[in-house]
Specification:
Pfam families: DUF2953. InterPro entries: DUF2953. This is DUF2953 domain-containing protein. It comes from Paenibacillus roseopurpureus. The chain has 234 residues and is α+β, with helices and mostly antiparallel strands. Helix content is 43%, strand content 36%. Strands 1, 2, 3, 4, 5, 6, 7, 8 and 9 form a 9-stranded mixed β-sheet that branches. α2 (92-107) packs antiparallel against α6 and α3 (112-120) packs antiparallel against α5 (195-210). The longest helix has 25 residues, at 139-163. It is globular.
């Protein structure tokens, strides 16, 4: 009997170690071709057994007064069939409300910036792609616009290298279209973090929230509202 208990304990210990040493992988993808926009966020864990995917195939900017109209889709994991479809309207008031909630979380967490910097240092960027095609109909203006976009991309790439461990060779390019008016872009960022580091980061975040009065309550309210807003795909 003791032998079987010992074997079970060893098996459980090995399983826990394997899980803690595995990766949580995430991917952010955005593309715009003419008037077609696609945005997706995907998170996978436990060797693909756990997967959350959020897809927004339609983004329509109605102006600063009317806000942004988006359509999100829930995709079945097994067959990639459309499971659910919802439409949402992001207004200026909702953006301001979210900003106030995020600011409240910042106030109720001890040194949240330091925690974010420490956590991002454990993230490995496994894929970084950003290809842009731009043309404004005039060759000199297209060249100037291309240079400006290169400057923006260089600054953002420097930020990524500063805070995230870049393990893949980035694919960054700006392709001028001198003979036509066009703007198309494709951006993909894929990263991973070991489950052990993610669990440790969660514990540290809880500790920092506990150090501030009302911190845990503020985080619970923030997470519940975020879950109600974003519906993950199966």
């Amino acid at each position: 009997m003791l032998l079987w208990v010992g074997v079970a304990a060893v098996v459980i210990a090995i399983a826990v170690i394997v899980v803690l040493c595995s990766f949580v992988r995430g991917e952010f993808y955005f593309s715009r071709v003419k008037d077609n926009d696609t945005l997706s966020v995907e998170v996978r864990g436990l060797f693909g057994l756990i997967r959350y995917r959020y897809v927004i195939p339609i983004i329509q900017f109605k102006g600063f007064a009317q806000g942004i109209m988006i359509k999100s889709e829930t995709i079945r994991k097994s067959s990639n069939e459309l499971k659910d479809e919802t439409r949402d309207h992001i207004t200026k008031d909702r953006v301001i409300a979210f900003y106030k909630q995020a600011k409240d979380v910042l106030v109720h967490t001890m040194n949240l910036y330091g925690w974010m910097k420490m956590t991002l240092a454990k993230v490995e960027c496994t894929d970084l792609k950003w290809i842009t095609r731009v043309g404004v109909g005039d060759a000199p203006e297209t060249a100037i616009t291309t240079g400006a976009i290169w400057g923006i991309k260089s600054s953002l790439l420097g930020f990524t290298i500063r805070y995230v461990n870049l393990v893949a060779k980035p694919r960054i390019d700006v392709i001028p279209q001198y003979n036509e008016k066009q703007f198309a872009t494709e951006f993909r960022f894929a990263g991973r973090i070991r489950v052990w580091y993610a669990v440790t980061a969660g514990v540290r975040l809880m500790y920092r929230a506990l150090k501030v009065k009302g911190g845990i309550r503020t985080w619970i309210q923030f997470v519940l509202k975020a879950r109600a807003r974003f519906k993950p795909a199966a």
